[in-house]
Amino acid sequence: MMEKDILEMQRLIDEGVRLAQIRLWQRAGAEHQALVVYRGGKILELVPEVEEGVTDCNSGDPFARRKMI
After folding, report:
1. Does some domain include residue 23?
2. Helix (H) or strand (E) holding 36
3. In which band, very low, low, confident or very high, does the pLDDT at 69 lie, cut at 50, 70 and 90?
């Protein structure tokens, strides 16, 4: 595998991780929950603000339909 291919794979992985973080943040905000993270040697509790008009907090949840039934 060439270095170019490895860099492209790493870029795709980084994008996927960032998308997962965004979805987690949105879901926590929609469900009025806090996120607890360890950053810089400290434990922090982060509370996302709820965005107006965000109703789909289950996007990306494979069991979302089952939960609604």
Report:
1. yes
2. strand 35-39
3. very low
> What span, in angstroms and rounded, lies between the C-alpha atoms of 10 and 6?
6
**How many domains does the structure of the chain reveal?**
1
| Residue owning tokens 């794979």 | 9
Are 34 and 44 in contact by the 8 Å Cβ rule? The answer is no
Residues 6 or more apart in contact with residue 34 via CB below 8 angstroms: 28, 45, 46, 47
* pTM recorded for the entire structure: 0.61
Please tell me the distance from the alpha carbon of residue 25 to that of residue 40, in angstroms, as a whole number.
20
* pLDDT greater than 70 at residue 15: yes
- Element of type H or E holding 42: strand 42-46
Domain assignment present for 55 = no
The residue behind tokens 């492209």 is 8
